[in-house]
Write the structure tokens for this entry.
Amino acid sequence: MGKVIEVMDTTLRDGLQAGSLAMTVQEKLAIASFLLTGVGVDRIEVASARTPKGENDWLKIITLWAKEHDKLDRIEVLGLVDIKQSADWIAESGCKVMNLLVKGAEDYCLSIGKTCDRHIEEMLETIDYCKNIGLMVNIYLEGWSEGVQTSWDYLKRILHSIPQHKVERVMLCDTMGILYPAQIGGFVKKTLKILYYSKVDVHMHDDYGLATANTLAGVSTGLVSGVHVTVNSMGERAGNASLEQVVVGINDLTNHATKVSEPLLKKLCQMASSFCGRPIPANAPIAGSNIFVDGCGVHVHGRKKGAYATRLIADRFGSTHTSAISSLSGKSGLRSALEQELGITTLNNSEIQSLLDKVSELHLNGHRLTAGHLLSLVSEVLNQPERIVLSVKNGDVISRSVLGGKANVQAKLLYRNEEIQFESYGDGGFDAFMNGLKTWAVTSHICIPELLDFSIRIPSEGKTDALTEVDIRWSRLDGRGEFHTIGTSSDQVMASIHSAIMAVNVCNQNVAS
Ligand SMILES: [Zn+2]
């Protein structure tokens, strides 16, 4: 029987060290509280000491929250070997744990102008000062992965100098992401022979795409008690080991486990993605939008027969398996997509073949197809135009900016062959349109799905009049999960409106039949 591995999430420190990512204090607090009280990670690292004033203000806020929720000892801050400065900075906020960054490779030490002796001396003084003012200390061995290979004598001296009784845990860092899994066991054992600790974390970066594999290799030694991760693999360069992948990997591929709640991982990943404005790649393990989508009809057929089963099933993560809508779907995949996306199960073989022909033609011409396209094609194949309840023509929506930064929209739509009109306001053209649509929908008893995520793409043709694709992820609001629609137009507001109208049709199409 294995052990429960501690998970330390460093999204708010190492993750945000990727300079292109940022969060507001409110967003950081939402992530921190969800990590500790929802998802259930053991510890979080939330800041680096001696960073600009705003960081200290944030630290005070998270510390206050942690005190109120009895989680103060689970909030950690990175500090430097600088005797008092980092310690005072951290203590001033009320935080209790410093992760002390000690140079684990000789060239790292020389780069800050210190000899090994001087660095050790200052490390000991810093640790003593922390203990005197009531801070707990964990030791980061920065560049350990390099030191263990290229400056072992230096690293040995550092390891021998760490005062075991004053330090909670040692944290082995592959700072530049240079290791591969076959090396990890040997390096961990070599290190712990010099300095045995019951609490050892591994901190892996993803420069070769191996951070998850390296972290699992560390855990598999049986000597590692904790792992460092970030949500969505956020972090400098290629990022850190990903929380979602590492947790699921530990649970499935080692004989160890974590306390993290798997069903909440996807929500966490989506929160972090939306706060940072960095989309989750569609093919990202666990949280990617494509991860439980069968693209090939053979797989859909096989899955129905009980084949192609792995432990990675959608239910486990609050998702559902779906089928792609493409030329490769085959009849089996298309039937499955029809049922999942539109609740349609009644097409006969020849209707399915006609539908597949239409899908293939569009897909092979480069169209990305969604539930909205499928509905249009079904209505054509079945000659049931009434399935499309709502439509709009280009030119029937006029959007303009008004004084005060607001947008005004005048819209003319066709609903069940009757013209409807509304005028509305919002923070932009699309917001104004949706405000008007929602107001109209209330009186017409039309369901408007909840917008979950919005992304816009302009194919890289280098032209300002290029077609814009607006891909929106929606919640159906009836417990049947999520779906997405893609609207296309040379005008961005119109592309968004087309996407929204497709979604309304998908959610209300049964009413029409
Ligand atoms: Zn790091």
Summary: The chain is about 40% helix and 20% strand. The mean pLDDT is 91. The first strand starts at residue 6 and ends at 9.
